[in-house]
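Reminder to self: tokens first, then the designed residues, so the page reads top to bottom the way the pipeline ran.
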């Protein structure tokens, strides 16, 4: 079976600082790129490469092991000790990656244990798992015409969730179960604040 394997990596070898700060205490210029950093990012983008198509079966542990061994050739290493990189996967590929590493758990060194690649679920799959496991939203598919009612229900669910979160913030509440005394005027005020923040009026210009 010919499988086209696409991976993404984030370098972690420079993340040795153990200090932890709140985001609000980090200076804004830390997140702003200077001209040197811009040039370095451009240079890295120019040097992208394609490892090609790996003729392996992603549905089998031996196939995934072979894929990880091949990709691991591009991971920085010092002898048998590797500098682990994050490997972004979808939910199912993540599980197979973990199973492949488990099959090599008793190997003699980091390379043989496939520790050069640390699996992590991609953001959209984390969201998908959250919707399935926490909110029991399982029936939405990418083909809207085949599941129109489920998609419509999902959009309504998400919208109501955002509105509820917005209302909690405006009322300075930390939890839905927190008790607070509010009246009709409070509800009206919160409603107006929410609408004012999300409303995008059309500006009409003569001519």
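Designed residues (207 positions):
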């Amino acid at each position: 079976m010919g499988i086209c394997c696409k991976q993404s990596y984030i370098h972690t070898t420079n993340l040795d600082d153990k200090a932890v700060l709140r985001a609000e205490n980090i200076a804004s210029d830390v997140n702003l790129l200077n001209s040197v950093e811009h040039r370095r990012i451009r240079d890295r983008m120019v040097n992208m490469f394609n490892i090609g198509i790996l003729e392996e079966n992603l549905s089998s542990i031996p196939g995934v092991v072979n894929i990880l061994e091949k990709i691991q050739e591009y991971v920085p290493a010092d002898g048998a000790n590797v500098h682990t990189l994050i490997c972004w996967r979808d939910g199912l590929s993540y599980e197979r990656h973990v199973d492949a590493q488990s099959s090599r758990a008793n190997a003699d060194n980091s390379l043989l244990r496939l520790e050069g690649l640390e699996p992590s679920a991609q953001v959209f799959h984390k969201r998908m798992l959250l919707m399935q496991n926490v909110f029991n939203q399982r029936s939405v598919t990418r083909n809207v015409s085949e599941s129109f009612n489920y998609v419509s229900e999902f959009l309504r669910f998400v919208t109501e969730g955002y509105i509820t979160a917005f209302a909690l913030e405006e009322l300075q509440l930390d939890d839905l179960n927190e008790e607070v005394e509010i009246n009709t005027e409070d509800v009206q005020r919160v409603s107006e604040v929410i609408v004012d923040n999300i409303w995008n009026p059309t500006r009409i210009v003569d001519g």
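Residues 165 and 194 are 10 Å apart (CA to CA).
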